[in-house]
Design goal:
Order of helices and strands of chain A: HHEHEEHHHHHHEHHHEEHHHHEEHHHEE
Distance between the termini of chain B: 91 Å
Number of strands of chain B: 4
CATH superfamily of the largest domain in chain A: Cytochrome Bc1 Complex, Chain C
Shape of chain B: elongated
Strand order of the largest sheet of chain B: 1-2
Oligomer: heterodimer
Structural class of chain A: mainly alpha
CATH architecture of the largest domain in chain B: Orthogonal Bundle
Strand content of chain A: 5-15%
Largest sheet of chain B: 2 strands, antiparallel
CATH class of the largest domain in chain B: Mainly Alpha
Radius of gyration of chain B: 26 Å
CATH topology of the largest domain in chain A: Cytochrome Bc1 Complex, Chain C
Strand order of the largest sheet of chain A: 1-4
CATH class of the largest domain in chain A: Mainly Alpha
Number of domains of chain A: 2
Structural class of chain B: mainly alpha
Largest sheet of chain A: 2 strands, antiparallel
Distance between the termini of chain A: 22 Å
Number of helices of chain B: 10
CATH superfamily of the largest domain in chain B: Cytochrome c-like domain
Number of domains of chain B: 3
Strand content of chain B: under 5%
Helix content of chain B: 40-55%
Number of helices of chain A: 19
Number of strands of chain A: 10
Helix content of chain A: 55-70%
Shape of chain A: globular
């Protein structure tokens, strides 16, 4: 269909009918000028850009399903006897919170489904945030000018963890109470002030009667409001900065190539919302999550084997599980390093490292340019390797949080597992760093090789003297462009040890400059730079001159079929 | 305690006594072949040079211990291990009762529970709920809230209660096999034990409300599902959406 065949939008029947109401609104709230920019806003297309959308849509699902649950949930720790439909708990004394959660599960039509949707969506929300964050990290999308948006994202992740944990604690079943007790211990491990904070939060000794109403307020009002606000800021900055894009033909640091919001991107994103909602609902309809009825009501003297937090708190649980039992009694206080270092230290350091990284990298590279093009992970080997090391350390802690499940399911000794994780927490990230860095450099070399010597055609030639060689054909120009679009490595000359006025640095400032120089060299060490134009010209000559390296295969050539017949585009 | 076993045997007292001694003798012969190498020829146990048990003494363990250990296949052990695993029983039911009768003669110990102690099917909802309270107080810390089992130090474990007969659960409570503590009748009355069994059986027999369950393993399995099925599945959709452009008719003029 050519452009001439397409009727202009204002000539369609729909537009003629819609013109009246649209004009009415525009005259009163002035939507046209506002939406004009927005609806023509261009978004680039790539599957990895949709990870954040999964998080966003899961959050909407959470708001909808959560609203339903508030209609019946009783955030009260008042004791009562259960007389609902679930027979094995008949007459058992429990809190109203637990009883009303049982009612939602067994006596409210659709309640169990909505509860499961809410819980699966929560687990998905944080998983999607994390996947989105990893995508942003490994593609360098957090670099200038997007550092603030990265920080907002880190804040969202932190709030997501707290929000998820608060929700996990509300039903007041044996599992959620055990999780609450874990956090209680975490708070009390804070030296000196820990027990005071505990009394402040719980309104007295654990568990008290206050914590569930308080968590409920935080869970349905305070934290969702904060998350909503941060999401709004996150999206506004996204629109303001424009979305990053992958390098490719026609895509530069100054433009955005993609589809406008209306009609294409809105349809795609809107459709994806329904996919996420439908997928979550489908999962919730067929897969059980958090069967609170089998855990029974919370009782501080009881516990069940296999008590774990939801997955996103698993790394903190694991850190505590593998920590040696270091504890002091000193100055009339107990110093619980065994809990404080892994739990409080672990949670804090995760978020400190995440928040600090863009600024640390900026300090190392000294790169002050704006970046709107993404970097393939291989083209930032040290960053990618550091990311892999971080993911590995997180993974070790995460797995350690399930050490008992690993022990029973794989018939292993829980002590052996714990020791593997204790040592592995320090060793595996180093291995991951080294291996990832080598893989990245290998891939960089392979890219350079393809740019310079073309791709392997699969056509084998035999020379009259009997030797075999494979024909290579030059890479398509678009592909060459995409492979060489990233920035060249900086010249790592000796950093001049003088300040901006040319005066020789001395003492502390000099040592600082030297240290930075050292870190910078480490950061770029080993990375394979992209070919220079000289390299490319040289390679072209080689192509032209070398016998048996036919240029005439040309751009139409697309390899050969299994029977050796050249394929055409 | 052989007399208690004999009390369940049919027939007149005289023939019962004769049957009884025959049973004990048959049990002793089985014992000498299959058990004595570790537990000693008279069930007195064998001590290693450094004072550890090679096989513990069976004096006073009672018929219940034999019925549990041999009936669940834990004894005879196939190999040295931190813990004897449950496996298919090596002996027939008759041989097990003979072995039990013999071991019961070594010293007074708990007997095999009778059918009327085990009538958990007739437990009222209140009794089941009470059994649940006892179960959560005494059992879930090791065996998990649905009896899926749990890990213990040094390769030992609390086994799953799935598919374990009521009699074996009862015997485990009174004899405290391997890592398990003994729950004597002073601690948990026979009725409490029967209510616990009723609760476990009820929870295990009820449908998995809410869909496919993670086998009672809790949030670890949920986390696995969220990442593999949830994020994995949605990424498949994301790739599908990302791979499609704006053309409504694909390759209309191709």
């Amino acid at each position: 269909m050519s452009a001439e065949d397409t009727p202009r939008v204002e000539d369609t029947g729909f537009a003629k009918k819609a013109a009246g109401p649209v004009k009415w609104i525009d005259e009163r709230v002035g939507g046209a000028s506002l939406s004009k920019g927005l609806i023509r806003k261009v978004f680039p297309d790539h599957w990895s850009f949709l990870l954040g959308e999964i998080a966003l849509y899961s959050f909407i699902v959470l708001l909808l399903s959560g609203t339903f649950l508030t209609l019946w949930f009783q955030p009260s720790m008042a004791e009562m006897h259960y007389h609902g439909s679930y027979a094995p708990l008949q007459g058992v004394e429990m809190s109203q919170a637990y009883a009303s959660t049982l009612d939602i599960s067994f006596d409210i039509r659709g309640g169990l489904l909505v509860r499961q949707i809410h819980h699966w969506a929560a687990a998905l929300f944080i998983a999607a945030m994390m996947a989105h964050m990893l995508r942003v990290f490994f593609t360098g999308a957090y670099r200038k000018p997007r550092e603030v948006n990265w920080l907002i994202g880190v804040g969202l992740l932190g709030l997501g963890l707290v929000e998820g944990f608060a929700g996990y604690s509300l039903p007041d079943d044996l599992l959620s109470g055990t999780g609450l007790r874990f956090v209680d211990g975490l708070i009390r491990s804070i030296p000196i002030v820990g027990s005071y904070i505990e009394f402040f939060l719980f309104g007295g000794e654990f568990p008290g009667n206050e914590i569930i109403p308080r968590l409920y307020m935080a869970h349905i009002l305070l934290i969702p409001a904060l998350i909503l606000g941060l999401i709004a800021a996150h999206m506004l900055l996204l629109v303001y900065h424009k979305h990053t894009q992958w390098p490719g033909a026609g895509r530069t640091n100054e433009n955005v190539v993609g589809y406008p919001v209306l009609p294409v991107y809105a349809a795609k994103a809107g459709g994806f919302f329904f996919i996420v909602f439908g997928f979550t609902a489908f999962m919730s309809a067929i897969i059980q999550i958090n069967p609170i009825w089998v855990y029974g009501p919370y009782n501080p003297s009881e516990v069940t084997a296999g008590s774990q937090p939801d997955w996103y708190m698993g790394f903190a649980e694991g850190a505590v599980r593998i920590m040696p039992n270091w504890e002091w009694s000193f100055l009339n206080y107990t110093w619980s390093w065994n809990v404080f270092i892994p739990a409080v230290g672990g949670l804090t350091s995760l978020f400190v490292i995440l928040a600090a990284w863009p600024f640390v990298e900026r300090w190392i590279t000294g790169d002050d340019r704006e970046h709107h093009l993404l970097v393939r992970p291989r083209n930032a080997p040290t960053r990618t390797a550091l990311g892999a090391a971080g993911v590995t350390a997180y993974g070790v802690l995460w797995a350690a949080g399930g050490n008992d499940i690993i022990a029973t399911q794989f018939h292993l000794d829980i002590f052996a597992i714990t020791w593997v994780f204790r040592i592995g927490f320090f060793v595996f990230p180093v291995l991951a760093y080294i291996i990832t860095k080598r893989i990245c450099i290998g891939l960089q070399r392979a890219d350079a090789e393809r740019v310079l010597h073309g791709y392997e055609t699969g056509v084998l030639e035999r020379t009259p003297d009997g030797s075999y060689s494979e024909r290579h054909a030059p890479l398509d120009v678009n592909r060459q462009y995409a492979l060489t679009n990233h920035a060249r490595l900086p010249e790592l000359t000796e950093t001049p040890l003088v300040d901006e006025n040319g005066v020789e640095l001395t003492g502390k400032a000099r040592r600082k400059a030297k240290r930075r120089d050292k870190v910078r060299r480490w950061y770029y060490a080993g990375a394979h730079d992209k070919p220079t134009t000289h390299d490319v010209d040289h390679a072209l000559e080689h192509f032209a001159g070398h016998e048996g390296h036919p240029v005439e295969l040309g751009q139409e050539f697309a390899g050969v079929s299994e029977t050796g017949v050249p394929k055409q585009h | 305690m052989g007399g208690v076993y004999a009390a369940f045997q049919p027939g007149s007292p005289a023939t019962a006594a004769a049957d009884d001694s025959r049973t004990v003798e048959a049990g002793r012969e089985l014992f000498l072949v299959g058990c004595a190498s570790c537990h000693g020829e008279n069930g007195e146990g064998i001590t290693t040079k450094d004072g550890n048990n090679y096989g513990p003494s069976l004096v006073g363990v009672g018929a219940a211990a034999v019925d549990f250990q041999v009936g669940t296949g834990r004894m005879p052990m196939a190999q040295l291990a931190p813990q004897a695993p449950r496996k298919a029983p090596v002996y027939t039911d008759e041989e097990i009762s003979q072995l039990a009768a013999y071991v019961a003669t070594l010293g007074a110990g708990p007997s095999i529970p009778s059918e009327d102690v085990l009538d958990w099917q007739n437990a009222t909802p209140e009794e089941i709920a009470e059994g649940g309270e006892f179960f959560r107080t005494n059992c879930t810390a090791c065996h998990n809230s649905v009896g899926a089992g749990g890990a213990l130090p040094s390769g030992r474990y609390a086994p799953s209660l799935e598919g374990v007969t009521a009699a074996h659960i009862y015997e485990a409570m009174v004899t405290g096999p391997q890592q398990m503590p003994v729950f004597s009748d002073d601690v948990l009355t026979p009725e409490d034990k029967r209510n616990i069994i009723a609760y476990v059986k009820t929870v295990q027999d009820q449908p998995n409300y809410g869909g496919l369950g993670g086998g009672g393993l809790g949030p670890v399995v949920d986390g696995l599902i969220v990442w593999v099925i949830g994020i994995g599945g949605l990424i498949v959709f994301a790739i599908w959406i990302g791979a499609h452009g704006a053309r409504s008719k694909k390759k209309a003029n191709a």
